[in-house]
Structures are given as C-alpha cells and as structure tokens.
Amino acid sequence: MGSAKTTVQARKRPQAKSAVPRPRRLKPPTYKTFRYSKRIKHPVKLPNVFKITKQAIGLLWQNKRFFIILVLIYGVLNILFVRGLTGGTDVTSLKDTLNQIFTGHVGHFVSGLTVFALLVSSSGNTSSATAGAYQTMLILIVSLAVVWSLRQFMAGSRIRVRDSFYQGMYPLVPVLLVLAVIGLQLVPALIGSTLYSIVASNGIAVYAVEKVAWALLYGSLALLSLYMVTSSVFALYIAALPDMTPMKALRSARELVRYRRWTVMRKVLFLPLFLLVVAAIIMVPIIIFLTPAAEWVFFLLTMI
C-alpha cells in the first residue's frame, strides 16, 4: 500500500519543464544628447536632398490646381489684412540710388542683388502690430491646411480646398504648444545675437581676436538652438496628427532624428538655401529690366 501511494503521488507531481534555450539579444547601443559617444549608424539611410526635392515638387505638381487656389486665397487675405495695395519697399527709387553708386553691367547686377537682399530682409516686416498679428494667424492657418492636405494626397485621397480649412484646423492647440517649445529653444540664438549686436555697436570688441571670439560665441549659441530645433520642427507635423499631444509629438520627433540629427539638419537647411537661390535667379533679372513689376513678383514668390 505504501509503495502504491508513493507511486500515485509521484504521478501527480508536476514534471520539471525542460529549459528551452532562448535566442540571445544584443543590447542596443545607448545614445545621449550633448554627450560624446561612439558614432551610431541609423539602420535606414535617408535619400539625398535632390531626390527629396524632386519628390516634393512632383507631389505639388500633381495637385497644382489645388495649391494654386490655396496660394490665391492666402495672397488675397494677405493683401486685405497685412500688406495692403500700396506695398512696402520702393524698388525703383532704391535701384536708381544704387545705380549711381555701382556703374556698368557688373554694377547693375550688384544693384539688383542688393535690392533683392533688401526685399528678402524686409519680407517679414509689417506696417503695424495689428498687421503682424494677422500675418502670424494667416501663416498658421494656411500651414495647417497645407499639412493636412499633403497628408491626404499622400494617402491617395481626393479633397477640396475648403476641406483643408474645415478639417485641418483641429490640431491648432497642440501645434501652438509645440511652437512655444521651439520659441524656448531659440532663446540661446537670441541671446547670442543680442550680445553680438551690443558688442559690435558699442565698440567693446576692438581687436580682431576679440571680434572672432564673440562671433564664435554667437555661432555656438545659434548652433545649439539649431540642434534642438532640428527635431522639434518635425513635431509641428506630428502634432497635426489625430489624437496627438505636444509632448508625445516632441518625443516622436526626437526619436525620428536619433543617430542622424546632423544629417537631418543639413537636409533641413538645404530647403531655405534652395528657395533663396531660385528666388534670386528669378528676381535679379526682373529687378534689372522690369523694375516696376519687381515688388509684386516678389510678393507672389513669397506667397508660393
């Protein structure tokens, strides 16, 4: 009886599970911002800037009618609430003044390039604080409409212009909060610019070494701001997604540029440089040969 009971208990005992070997996993490399670490390659290689630009232009060209109407709406609203019909810079008188300084064919080219630089530098200026507030509001509204429209077109949907304004405005608050974070990230560049302007205007830096040192300080602070904004600028687009909070958008944007922040920074900086060169190629001949129309052509380019 005792041996039979022992046999039954032995049968009821759970048998020990055989140890199944698990696949070994390599610990992913760690990366910390602003700390020197071994260079880590991102598994996905980004396309070059020319391919990105070609794809963007192709998407806009496929939906050119939609975006032309959007640009016209933005331009009319800008004229009514911000710019007015009188315009800003008197290009004709400015060019005549510069032609008296720079003579010859090369001088005319330098005059046209100088006028173009002045137009670019004054493009964001407004006549009053009210016009500036309207301009900021228009840029924000149209930007949200463009982001929503591009997302729909890339998904293969067919939409109307009014849909972009009706349905693209819901992420307004998250985008504003992300913009506030970007404003804080630009504070180092603002501090550097203020310090450099004070030093340059008051003659504090006399020798070349002092001027170079202050310029390097300004450049370092500006580079710090650019380093932080490189990821946050993508958070503006991520925050426009449904059910997205600002902090989640900022974290997602930071993960997006992880291990390749400097590469992304170069590609982000290429866009304004490319647009500036294209605008100069268009505007400088117009300033030289069709001066009265230069201001309105430049206004059209800024709308686009």
Q: How would you describe this structure to a colleague?
A:
The chain is 73% helix and 0% strand. It has 13 helices and no strands. It has helices at 2-12, 49-62, 64-83, 91-101, 104-121, 129-154, 161-167, 172-185, 187-202, 208-238, 246-256, 261-289, 291-303. α3 (64-83) packs antiparallel against α6 (129-154) and α10 (208-238) crosses α11 (246-256). The model has no long low-confidence stretch (mean pLDDT 83).
Secondary structure: helix percent: over 70%
Integer-rounded radius of gyration: 29 Å
According to DSSP, the number of beta strands is 0
User: If helices are DSSP runs of H or I spanning 4 or more residues, what is the number of helices?
Assistant: 13
Order of helices and strands: HHHHHHHHHHHHH
Largest sheet descriptor:
none
Look at the structure and give the mean pLDDT.
83
End-to-end separation in angstroms reads 96 Å
Portion in strands: under 5%
The gross shape turns out to be globular
Structural class: mainly alpha
Q: pLDDT below 50 for ≥5 consecutive residues: which ranges?
A: none
Which keywords apply here?
about 300 residues; mainly alpha; about 75% helix; about 0% strand
In short:
The protein is mainly α. The protein has helices at 2-12, 49-62, 64-83, 91-101, 104-121, 129-154, 161-167, 172-185, 187-202, 208-238, 246-256, 261-289, 291-303. It contains 13 helices and no strands.
